[in-house]
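Q&A log
Question type: sequence-to-structure
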Amino acid sequence: MLNIAVRAARRAGSIITRAIEKRQDLVIESKSKNDFVTEVDRQAEATIIDVLHRAYPKHGFLAEESGVQNGDAEYQWVIDPLDGTTNFLHGNPQFCVSIALKHNNILDLAVIYDPIRDELYTASQGKGSYLNDRRIRVSNLMSLDSSLLGTGFPFKFPEDLDTYLNTFKALHPLVSDIRRAGSAALDLAYVASGRLDGFWEIGLHEWDIAAGALLIQEAGGYVSDFGGGERYLKTGNIIAGNPKIHKGILQTITPHLNEGLKK
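Response status: OK
Response body:
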């Protein structure tokens, strides 16, 4: 199944890289404020689903652009065909293809593919995480001191901006620096590979974080919601990092969260 998912991700990546030089000519639609979709997103997603469906016709899908298909299936693929669409539209080379597989609602496989750098992140439950076939681990920092964190602004949820800024201000003096690159899936892959020590964000979707979450867990890290629990795929509120960094982020931001975000 992992090999099929890799094949699907690479085919989608080829569609994306061919389109980047002609992005000015693409048809762009606005799904909501600050949330865009292009014909490239849809074509990449259709290609991924076609590859997976041909191999596994009884499997279900949860995909960003086409929604749920066969939602009661034992196996469900969770697909973001182009995470970082806004970056893509501006020629900013920070975007990726993200594919995860859930078996009976438990994350089982993960693929994140950065087509610009040709970097392929993969994970299987209980078998570790890899970057281009090289085993990866989360960083070994023991505290927030000197850490480099990733984050994302809640641009789709302006009502949470003040709360988010309070968490940012609480963490900022404790760490080396904070990056906001614009692709949550790729940020999580960077946590898994130690390029970032931790990550937090409000209001993501399941397809943004499913693959990255498994990559981090299989690389020795922790992933949780803002209450320290495991509902991050449902709430979209996520904290990730190695065990010490995850704990440090959680303890630092908890006093600044409203009750709704703590659940």
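Response note: The CA atoms of residues 93 and 152 lie 17 Å apart.
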